[in-house]
Amino acid sequence: MPKTPSLKLNFIMNAILTASSFLFPIITFPYVSRILLPEGNGRIAFVTSSISYFSMAASLGIPTYGIRICAQVRDDKDQLSRTVQEIFIINAIMTALIYACFFAAIHMIEEFRVEKTLFLICGSTMFFNLIGIEWLYKALEQYHYITIRSILFKLISIVFMFLLVHSPEDSIIYGGITVLAGVGSNILNFINVRHYISLTACPPYRLFRHLKPIFVFFALSVATTIYTNLDVVMLQFISGSREVGYYNAAVKIKVILTSFVTSLGAVLLPRISYYVENHQSEQYQNLIRKAFDFVFLSAAPLCIFFVVMAKESILFLSGEAYLNSVMPMRVIMPTVLFIGLTNIIGIQLLVPLGDEKLVFFSTCFGALVDIVLNVYCIPRYASTGAAIGTLAAELVVLGAQVWFIRSRLKILGTGLQIHKIFASLVPAVLALFWVHRRFKGHGSFLTLTVAAASFFSIYGITLILSGYKIPLRSRT
């Protein structure tokens, strides 16, 4: 078995991967938004959001369950190989069934039939997700490999985008390029897997031992997907592609920021699962504290900055055609902090302890709130209404999860530096408002640059002066 990298190296590699995910939309989205315009951009968002439901069903709860179970047996190659093969068989059977439903839906649903070609191209993600076995690489903490191949395919995709996407009619080509950027590298995963497990059949297979936890995680995925994608689908049916385009411009920025905030959590699940399996409670609690610190450290300033600078951000990334995206962006931006916290509480704290049912319950509460508010708000406020539903849903999920761990809060809260973070934000926010007022009307790029430089530099300097200790600075 390959040597397990240090958690610090994993975080660095995942931070690089997150940075590439941050830079890719920054490079491509301003160009694509202006080429495809709100309607074309809305078509892509509608198709990808719809396919997410099929992908969710095809993968069941395997992306999370696979990480946990493989991390627990990673020291035994024979047991790991058998476990991976069992999970892959389950995944393959389910993917085949969902593809049958997918083709039937394209034939029967008018909105799907109109975008048939785009649906077929983007629907290939289910096949790539199957052969990618991404959960195995994450369980083995091979983040250096994941990072390198992902960046390579993103660079290739950027080249193809500028070469091939030149008009609103090229939305189908852009759909194919997004598939290449997102999951094309899974082909390499399939080829490379022989270095980590044996490909020789390992009967007898005990598939049923995985079904109960997989379906618990699947139920969690269903609830999560409902309130993370239903807003886009409902917007399409109620308000049309243009409003979806406005909303998607705001969501794109939120997703980029959320990816950065949850980057540490992404590398923690396999390590935490390993600690829990081996009863190393002190190391486990130490990682959770560092994760909480990191989320507050990164998410709080990002939320504030992009709420204040929402208009300039939209103008710079998407153009004047997307000015209606400003209000949805301001409404939805606090979810960056909420999602960061629920990622730690739910996926990094409750799941490794086997309490994924509690995560499911909290997500169901959020999904229910999202559906109710979408039905009321979208017909009245369109894209802003969808943002209101998402904001409320994420807040409800966070509130429920905090309630579930209330007995552990005193232990986990020991040593947190949250007070230093919020104290350091005060002078930074004052400077941000001054810059925003002073440079108003000087162009979105200049205003954003000066605002970011002043806000984050003052925030960082104040943190240092307060004696803040950076998470992961010590050896883990």
Write the layout of secondary structure elements.
Layout: H1 7-59, H2 62-72, H3 77-108, H4 110-114, H5 116-122, H6 125-132, H7 134-139, H8 143-164, H9 171-183, H10 186-192, H11 208-238, H12 241-261, H13 263-277, H14 281-308, H15 310-317, H16 326-332, H17 335-350, H18 356-381, H19 383-404, H20 409-413, H21 418-438, H22 444-465
Helix pairs in contact: 1-3, 1-6, 1-8, 1-9, 1-11, 1-12, 1-13, 2-3, 2-13, 3-6, 5-9, 6-10, 8-9, 11-12, 11-18, 11-19, 12-14, 12-16, 12-17, 12-19, 13-14, 13-17, 14-17, 14-21, 15-22, 16-19, 17-19, 18-19, 21-22
Give the key terms.
476 residues; globular
Q: What's the Cα radius of gyration?
A: 22 Å
Distance between the termini: 21 Å
| Structural class by SSE content | mainly alpha
On the 0-100 scale, what is the average pLDDT?
Answer: 83
Strand content: under 5%
Could you list the spans in which at least 5 consecutive residues all have pLDDT below 50? none
Tally of DSSP β-strands: 0
What's the SSE pattern? HHHHHHHHHHHHHHHHHHHHHH
Largest sheet: none
What do these coordinates show?
- The chain has 476 residues and is an all-alpha fold.
- The chain is 81% helix and 0% strand.
- The chain contains 22 helices and no strands.
- Helix 14 packs parallel to helix 21 and helix 15 crosses helix 22.
- The protein starts with 6 loop residues before the first helix and ends in an 11-residue tail after the last helix.
- The model has no long low-confidence stretch (mean pLDDT 83).
